[in-house]
């Protein structure tokens, strides 16, 4: 009988395995958000008395998690104070005119930057910049979006601060008794990996990425070419007179959105609350042609005449001056994911009208109230400028259009750059602990005006914090029940006589599979205890195996679900699922051979 089966027969171990299996099912099936699954697992382990409450909750007070929260705020202050304006200007310059040159810039500049700043904010910041670059150059976004995501992911393993996975691995290593990982402990492995990955991205992008063109990527073009914007008048005798839009047939029976209402010299924009309609009111509608014909036949509305006078032209063009059409991305972890537009009361919440939704290659325009939003969706919105400015501060939506006159104030740019640099320099010269340096930088960002207190709270990715904090309970449970030791003993028998390189390849592959099917955080907390026990059985350095799992969990190139950055570019790039697999498979294979060799060289194995 194997050691694993013996231990699994004990009640606490059996319960841990049951909770583990259920969590995997929920992670893969996606029936619950990942962070909710993590909280459920922690709760069940406490309910069944596998863990004490303080053991299950200790992950939420870990220095790694507090450091990560601070890093989200530091990166927000850096971006919003204009700290990366030079990078934006470089991308937009005449020197970067081809996808190849842009990818070289991403590999050479953006990837190293992501080694010190959480990569999700970097992708969120550069998405609109790259979309504008593609529109100006008439180049398909599918040629550059995945390389940007891959470059950011590759650069994330240059230092400890690059990803939440690195910080979590350091925390797990410390809890297991092998010490925390310092800022540049694995940089000697991360830099060759960055160089190898960068060369691959430059070489493979012309050969393995599709060219999906531009026309279908423009939601506004799709919508207007279909004739869905219409200017109408409410005639005498219309059934709408004296009613509000909320109580009228216009909203209840037809797929119609009223974008603006003009009454004499007055203009009103959505939402209109209980404003009563009057004869002669002029409405700007988004509607289907068949719905417009029905409304005309029933004399509910008539088409508005187009005049040549300055007053008429000003009225017809008022939408351009009072409102803007913008695209926003629904990122993974958004609280809107899984909810319908109607249930969210989207218009009231954001003071914005939803005109269309792009999901992969599909554009949804009809019955938008019933659309259930999903991570990766791109939404076309019409909203006043003030409402769009509010969207810039939302963590639930990522604005994909830059507001030229609403860029962050840059008078504190160099203050933000200096404070962000101190986060790296102080720990590097052993002058201060990483967590202390990050927290002091956050306080200084707020004190100097680089970041407002409200922005500080919104910048933190609470879904990531809840997931990582709750998942640490698995690591504790596997140690307490003996499951980690038992699994390691069985693996030790299977790998007996293998070289250190061969064993590390197996560990790396196993971690890759977990990362692509579950999440990088789950991979670290589940596999690290097993891998370190295996290392001790083989008389090899446990830290070498921790590095193997750290790099495997931080490098996801096969599926969009494995890493947040990859999911964020799927919609704007109009990629299909297998596009990423085809582009990422050779890179994954190369890293599977390279990373274990680099680890062996680093530890002289």
Fraction of residues in H or I helices:
55-70%
Per DSSP E runs of 2 or more residues, the count of β-strands stands at 10
Q: Give the overall shape, derived from the CA principal axes.
A: globular
The number of helical segments is: 29
Order of adjacent strands in the largest pleated sheet: 3-2-4-1-5
Q: Sheet bearing the most strands, described?
A: 5 strands, antiparallel
What is the residue-averaged pLDDT? Answer: 80
Report, as a whole number of angstroms, the end-to-end distance: 32 Å
Radius of gyration: 27 Å
Low-confidence stretches: 307-321, 404-409
Strand content: 5-15%
Structural class: alpha+beta
Q: Could you characterize what this model shows?
A:
- It is a single chain.
- The chain is of the alpha+beta class.
- Among the domains are: 3-48 and 480-602, no CATH class; 65-213 and 427-462, no CATH class.
- Helix content is 58%, strand content 8%.
- The chain is built from 29 helices and ten strands.
- It has helices at residues 3-8, 11-29, 34-47, 53-57, 63-80, 85-92, 99-113, 119-137, 145-155, 164-175, 187-208, 219-225, 249-253, 289-297, 310-316, 318-322, 341-344, 346-350, 385-392, 413-428, 434-447, 453-459, 462-481, 483-494, 500-517, 520-537, 542-554, 564-573, 577-602; strands at 229-233, 256-263, 266-269, 282-287, 302-303, 323-329, 353-359, 362-364, 378-384, 398-399.
- The strands form two sheets. The chain has a five-stranded antiparallel sheet, with helices on one face. Strands 8-7-9-6-10 form a five-stranded antiparallel sheet.
- The longest helix is centred in the last third of the chain and has 26 residues, at 577-602.
- It is globular and about 90 Å long.
- The chain starts with a helix and ends with a helix.
- Residues 307-321 and 404-409 have low confidence and may be disordered.
